[in-house]
Amino acid sequence: MKFLKLLLLVTTFIYAGFNNVKSDFIPVEKAFKVEATQKGENIEAKFIIADDIHLNADDSLKVLITSPENEELKVKFPKAHEHDGSMVYEKEISFKIPLKDIYAITSDDYTLAINFSGCADKGGICYTSQSRTFKFKGNPNPTGTWAKIANALDEANPMAIVNILVHESSFFTVFLFFIIGILLALTPCIFPMIPILSSIIVSQQSEDEKPSAFKGFIISLVYVLSMAITYTIVGVLSGMLGADIQTAVNNPWVHTIFALMFFALALSLFGYYEIQLPSSWQSKINAISDDAQGSGILGTVIMGFLSAFIIGPCVAPPLAGAVMFISQTGDALLGGLALFAMSIGMGLPLLLVGAGAGKFMPRPGGWMTAVSQTFGVVMLGLSIFMFDKVISEETTMLLWSLLFMGTAFYMGVFNDSSARKGITKLFSLLAFIFLIYGALLFVGYLTGAKSIFKPLEKFTTAKVASVDTVKTSEHIAKTDYSIDKLKAEIALSKKPVIIDFRKKGCPSCDELERDTFPDKAVKKELERFTFITVDTTNETDEIVALKKKYNIPGTPTIIFFDKDNKLLPSKTMVGFVKPKKFANHLKSM
Question: pLDDT tens, 251-265?
């Protein structure tokens, strides 16, 4: 009997305590009121939090698009404060979600979800994870695929191109790559192909032959097709094998061979010998077409091959995006057609240049020898450009100096200018400019200057250079990274992380190190980040695994992690980025 009385008493106390807790418990709908409305160019979201309740400022607080796509948005939340060892929000918080970030994912009507969790300050009661959804109308002025591509190119982000292309039809993908090729033809990287093509047309023009637009077009077509086939083969193999498109040609021996080939072509243009097919081959070709010239075809094919491998934008975002597209879809046929279409687009202006050069070229004469020799000088310059990746910067400076001074002497800088008439007098002035510039480069070589564009930098910017050297020396490239080691280093950082994948002999990597990273605005923004540099020159198993894990299409590639160690693929940048654009990119994070 006593036992029953005791049990009744304990039960009464427990029930009373439970009722007390229950009466203090606030339903989740009243504890957290969530609002989201569209105002101007943003979605403005607000949490109204009840008294004695806090919202967790952890990974549970997320903003996502759940329909028609499913993707998390990067949102800048207000600063939280600490409560019992955890970061939380109380009372009320608000934040904005830029519409442009949403429209970059979808232009259709969409569902926005805000996920969160929270707890009561007293009693230790925590609510289960919650989600509130809001439906919004899509973009009233949807951005077309072309605009998306243009934005992706401007952001230097190949993944943005891949994300667009995987949702398009095969026909449209091929057509789109053709348009991208035309856009590439308008960039500076394609300009060196114009004098190369012109030199080919001039060298194949005999003195007794009438200028022909058709022949100029055919020569240009052979050149462009050689370039296109090379891009297609290399791009498809790179995509299927997951290789860096420049890895095969980044070996010093390969650079040396290409440089020697340019040197040999220069000597050919100077008239020391001719590059031609065997006579039996030439006879068969001439039998098919009287206009065909075996030596011309071989020279044109070789130059198209070299132009594709070396002068083209090997790791520009569109090409990197194309290679990644092939790698992700596994569709070698579609990928190959797309790359071929892109190459033809790149060569389309060259076809027009070739036809125009063939049609409007002056009548054959002695001037052709001078023009061929001029392009021979251009080939020598390209040879030095290739040797630059193998030899020291000082030796490169010396070679450029000798080339400019030698060209000045060849042009007769000290000849009597009175013997020249009309516009030819300008050649004397040009020769004098070449001589002075060559002499300045020689001074730069003696003083240890690094850039041919700043031969007197040791005299004019010595103090500034020394400061920048100290600042940028922190970006020391390491070669011994593995996936686990890199992850560990990222985890140690309390800041967002930037990882710069680079390699030796990469001109764009050197440009970033020389021009972009030392910029004052960039350095100020970089103070908010942990900067890691990975040297991928030696293709070890660890480096190959790293490149595969983080989708590194080539160098330079810069990837970003937020402060929570989460990779941000949409922020990836490939190729050289100007200081102002890079600083603005950092500000957006």
Answer: 567 677 777 877 887
How long a stretch of residues is the chain? 589
Q: How many CB atoms lie within 10 A of CB 168?
A: 13
Cβ(389)–Cβ(399) below 8 Å: no
pLDDT band of residue 351 (cuts 50, 70, 90) is confident
What are 45's strand-pairing partners? 36, 95
Three-state SS annotation for 331-384: CHHHHHHHHHHHHHHHHHHHHHHHHHHHHHCCCCCCHHHHHHHHHHHHHHHHHH
Indicate whether 521 pLDDT > 70: yes
Q: What angle do CA 238, 243, 244 make, to 5 degrees?
A: 95
**How is residue 522 annotated by DSSP?**
H
Phi and psi, residue 341, nearest 5°:
-60, -40
Report the Cα 289 to chain-centroid distance in Å. 44
Residue type, 301: V
pTM: 0.51
d(CA 182, CA 185): 5
Beta bridge partners of 136: 110
First to last CA, the chain: 72
Cα–Cα distance for residue pair 410/507, rounded to 1 Å = 30
d(CA 366, CA 113): 75
Beta strands in 218-331 (DSSP E): none
Closest CA to 165 of 317, 63, 344: 317
For residue 82, the 8-state DSSP code is E
Please calculate the CA angle 263-537-583 and round it to the nearest 5 degrees: 100
Phi, psi of 301 (to 5 degrees): -60, -45
